[in-house]
Every structure is written in structure tokens, then in C-alpha cells.
Design a protein that fits this description.
Strand content: 15-25%
CATH class of the largest domain: Alpha Beta
Order of helices and strands: EHEHEHHEHEHEHEHEHEHEEEEEEEEE
Distance between the termini: 39 Å
Strand order of the largest sheet: 1-2-3-4-5-6-7-9
Helix content: 25-40%
CATH topology of the largest domain: TIM Barrel
Number of domains: 2
Number of helices: 10
Largest sheet: 8 strands, parallel, barrel
Shape: globular
């Protein structure tokens, strides 16, 4: 356990692939979110935020008591680095709460041109207190430890270095050492370490020279939910959820699950299992072993293991209250026999009453198409709730 007798609730840090997902994350209880601007990040395939959206995002976070972090975790060539000071100045004017970086040139540029706190990315592969001390001397506030770091080691690093520590606790993991992968470079001509990851490692492969050979290029999905009491007890400052390219339903569900587990651990030191929120959408078999420092064959994903069955899909979003009606937008085709539910901000499940569904002109409808607007008369629904389709066949 951490040496301090005062145990604080760790920050639940959620991914924000676009402005809408950011708003969903915050409304469902995220303490902080991480997002990217148009450049300098490692997820150029995501629907990253424009300068205007970044301004809206930071304002939204702060108005709801959440922190806003911007990723600058790409490895930059000289020409790109020369363009960074102007963006750093822009972020400083927005009063972002921190930037996430791993390139030493990026870190020094941020510290030279602003007073924005710097969090060191997992891409820096920080495993020990001596490495952490280097970043402390540079002026960093937090280290996002390598994904292979155990909870107990993270607590020791925090105690020795005095820096905040953050651990990934949920989501997809790279098979490469702390995320330093080059598979996409060879399969798709895109540099994984410069924002071009194509998730090539997650595709099925066969070896030509051996019909019965196992192929494994990537890991099982990380799920540290059952270890939340240990994470809380060891004083880990931030629990990071992976997934800037995943759905708003994933964001809402994971945030609710980890916040619920943290509150339970703080209240009575036990774990109340909110797994019903995590098992509903498609994922690879889960593992918690990396958080225990156990990297072995059991953490690798073999193609024959497949994916867990999908019970829920993102059905749509609640947009706004319109008089005595609630305006929604479908993301998939829905009809009167569809089992549609709203996921409440407190984790409550609200069935959608199809008898009250109309189009925007108030005419009753028996089905809606993807991206079509429709209204319902259930006043308990609030804007930015996500709708989920039960017993779905896809996500």
C-alpha cells in the first residue's frame, strides 16, 4: 500500500476522439479527458479536434469540473518541431490542464514556451524511479508509466520520485514494447509512432509454412476493473482508459464502470462488480496480468480465441430537449421491435418507449434509418445520453 494514510480517489481519465465523445465522457463522470488537435499526436486516424473545437472542449470540461489534457505524443522531425511553439502558445491561452508528450524536444519546447504542466507519455517507456527522476528534473509533473509496469512498482516509483503516476487500466494494448510498434509501417506504409497506426496487428494472419501454427501479433484487451481496490490502495493518481477511436457507448460504459469501482473501493475497501457495463460490447478476451507485472503467453491473443459476443451496439444519441419531446439521432437502423435503451448518467438503464417515437414533424414512425432524427416523449432522457441497442449483432 502507499505510505500515506490519506487515500485519495484516483482520477478516471477518459479518451476523447472528438468533441461529442469528450462531452459524453465528462457528462458520464470522467474526472479528466485526453484529446488531440489537428497535428502532433499519435492518432491521426481519429476525428481529432480543430482549434475551434479545442477551445469549446476546454471550456466544456472546466465548466463541468473536469480537466482537459492535450496529447503531443508524436515523435517530431525538425520542421514539425519548429511549428510547435505557436500551437503551445494557443494551448496556453486556452488554459489546458496538461499536455502529454514523450519526445524530449517536444517536452523542452513546451516547458520553454509555456507554464503548461507536462505529463510524460507511456511512449517514453518509463519503468523505474531513476528514469522518472530525470523527467522530474526536466520539470514534468506526471509520468504515464510503461504498460508493462505493475501496480506495486508504480507505487514505489511515485514514493521515490515524488511525481504523480498514471497507469493504463482498460482497452486495447500493443504487443510491442510499451507501444513502440512498426507493424503498420510494413503492412500499410504508415508510421505507427507518428500517428499512422492501422491496427494491422489485430487482423487475422496465417503462416504459409505451417498449417497448424498459432499467430499472435497483439495482446488481449486490458481490463483492470477487479484491481481497482489495489490501484486505489497504492495511491495511483490516474486510471487511464484507452480508446480515442472507439464509440461513445464504450466511453460512457467504461467511465461509469471505473468510477463506480473507485467509489466502492473508497467507501468500504471492497469491489462491487459493475462488469455488466463492460461485457456488452465487442472486445477481445480480457486480461489484467500486465497490471500485476505478469507478461506471459496468457496475455497474447490467439486468432482462434475470437472476440466476445456483442450484446449492445451504439444505437444513437440524445441531442436535446425540444418542448415536451426529446430529440435523438439514430446511428443504426431501428424499428418498433428493436430493444433500445438509454444509458443514464448514473448507470441507470431507461428503456425506450417506441409508442412515443415520431419523426421531427411529429408523425408516428415504425422505423428510422441511420443518422435520421427522431423524437420520443420520455422526459427523463437528457442531452448527451447514449442510446444502446440490446442483443445487437454488431457494434
Amino acid at each position: 500500500m502507499a505510505s500515506s494514510t490519506l487515500i485519495q480517489k484516483p482520477e478516471v481519465l477518459a479518451p476523447a476522439g472528438n468533441l461529442h465523445k469528450l462531452q459524453v465522457a465528462v457528462r458520464y463522470g470522467a474526472d479528466a479527458v485526453y484529446m488531440a488537435g489537428p497535428q502532433f499526436g499519435l492518432r491521426q486516424g481519429a476525428d481529432n479536434l480543430t482549434h475551434t473545437e479545442l477551445e469549446q472542449a476546454v471550456r466544456f470540461c472546466h465548466s463541468h469540473g473536469a480537466k482537459a489534457y492535450v496529447v503531443l505524443n508524436g515523435f517530431l522531425f525538425q520542421k514539425e518541431l519548429q511549428a510547435l511553439p505557436d500551437f503551445v502558445q494557443f494551448l496556453s491561452e486556452l488554459r489546458v490542464d496538461a499536455v502529454i508528450a514523450s519526445d524530449l524536444g517536444v517536452v523542452s519546447t513546451v516547458l520553454e514556451h509555456s507554464s503548461i504542466p507536462v505529463h510524460i507519455s507511456t511512449q517514453a517507456s518509463v519503468f523505474n524511479a531513476q528514469h522518472t527522476a530525470f523527467w522530474a528534473e526536466m520539470g514534468a509533473k506526471r509520468v504515464i508509466l510503461a504498460r508493462e509496469t505493475s501496480i506495486s512498482d508504480a507505487a514505489k516509483i511515485k514514493e521515490i520520485s515524488g511525481l504523480e503516476v498514471e497507469l493504463f487500466v482498460h482497452g486495447s494494448m500493443c504487443m510491442a514494447f510499451s507501444g513502440r510498434c512498426t507493424i503498420s509501417n510494413f503492412t500499410a506504409g504508415r508510421d505507427s509512432n507518428r500517428g499512422g497506426c492501422e491496427h494491422s496487428c489485430r487482423l487475422p494472419y496465417q503462416l504459409n509454412d505451417s498449417a497448424d501454427a498459432h499467430t499472435y501479433f497483439s495482446s488481449k484487451d486490458l481490463n483492470g476493473l477487479s484491481l481497482v481496490p489495489e490501484l486505489v490502495g497504492h495511491g495511483i493518481d490516474s486510471l487511464k482508459i484507452e480508446g480515442r477511436m472507439k464509440s461513445a457507448l464504450y466511453v460512457a460504459s467504461t467511465v461509469l464502470a471505473y468510477q463506480s469501482a473507485c467509489k466502492s473501493a473508497l467507501a468500504n475497501g471492497t469491489f462491487e462488480d459493475p462488469h455488466f457495463l463492460l461485457d456488452g460490447f465487442s472486445h477481445r478476451p480480457y486480461t489484467a496480468k500486465p497490471l500485476l507485472g505478469l507478461l506471459d503467453a496468457d496475455t497474447a491473443h490467439f486468432q482462434e480465441q475470437g472476440r466476445e459476443p456483442t450484446r449492445f451496439a451504439l444505437a444513437g444519441h440524445v441531442l436535446e430537449q425540444a418542448g415536451d419531446r426529446v430529440l435523438c439521432q439514430a446511428k443504426v437502423a431501428l424499428h418498433a421491435d428493436s430493444r433500445v435503451e438509454a444509458l443514464g448518467f448514473a448507470g441507470d438503464i431507461i428503456p425506450l418507449d417506441w409508442d412515443g417515437v415520431t419523426d421531427v414533424l411529429g408523425r408516428p414512425v415504425q422505423k428510422v434509418q441511420p443518422n435520421q432524427m427522431f423524437t420520443v416523449r420520455q422526459s427523463q432522457l437528457q442531452a448527451l445520453m447514449v442510446l444502446r441497442l440490446s442483443d445487437a449483432t454488431r457494434v
